[in-house]
Specification:
Layout lengths: L19 E6 L4 E6 L11 E8 L19 E7 L3 E4 L11 E4 L2 E5 L16 E3 L4 E6 L17 E10 L9 E12 L7
Parallel strand pairs: 1-11, 5-6
Antiparallel strand pairs: 2-9, 3-4, 3-10, 4-9, 6-7, 7-8, 10-11
């Protein structure tokens, strides 16, 4: 059997569609859903970590930095995962965002505390849900302590990455990084008040 040179690669075993760019006005507080396609239920003991690293920004420069700021600030973001409550039980009390399975369908609670009469599939307080979504929360104070602040003519940038780790006890705990890219913070006149 003929073999090709080890350096002649023509098959990419891992690929992605490229980095993302989040654009946020300084002081906004947002929650962004991220679909994790390779996990069926993210609520089952996976560990999520999302970090923003301050970029090596230059004052009033429209250029995106290509490296992180040496000694810059790293912010760990909250990653919200809807809580998995298992099979629906009629006399249990459920809260908003609780996930349950009922008649082999997964539902999410859409409102506050649900009563005994609220049955998934028959009550609008529940909606069908794909449990492979996590929610990355961007706090309003992000970038406010960075060494360079945005101006009316230039944004500041950081680098963002979401990491997913398999539950403890796996024979080989895998770690994936399904989201990575840059985050841009734009100038906000109300941020100065």
């Amino acid at each position: 059997m003929a073999r090709s040179l080890i350096t002649s690669t023509d098959e990419d075993l891992q690929s992605d569609s490229g980095g993302v760019l989040f654009s946020i006005v300084q002081g906004e507080q947002l929650e962004f859903p991220v679909t994790i396609n390779f996990i069926q239920n993210v609520s089952l003991y996976y560990t999520f970590e999302c970090v923003i690293m301050e970029g090596n920004n230059m004052y009033d420069s429209p250029e995106k930095p290509s490296i992180a700021k040496p000694g810059g600030i790293a912010n760990t973001l909250t990653v919200f995962v809807p809580p998995w409550r298992g099979v629906y039980v009629a006399d249990a009390l459920y809260s908003r965002d609780d996930l349950v399975s009922h008649d082999s369908i997964i539902y999410i609670a859409m409102s506050g505390y649900l009563t005994l009469q609220s049955i998934p599939g028959t009550d609008t307080s529940w909606t069908v849900y794909m449990p492979n979504v996590v929610y990355v929360r961007f706090d309003k104070s992000l970038s406010t302590t960075w060494s360079v602040q945005p101006t009316a003519g230039a944004n500041v940038y950081g680098f963002i990455e979401l990491s997913v780790k398999e539950p403890f006890g796996s024979r080989f705990e895998r770690v994936w990084k399904p989201l990575r890219g840059m985050i841009s913070f734009a100038y906000s006149p109300t941020q100065l008040n």
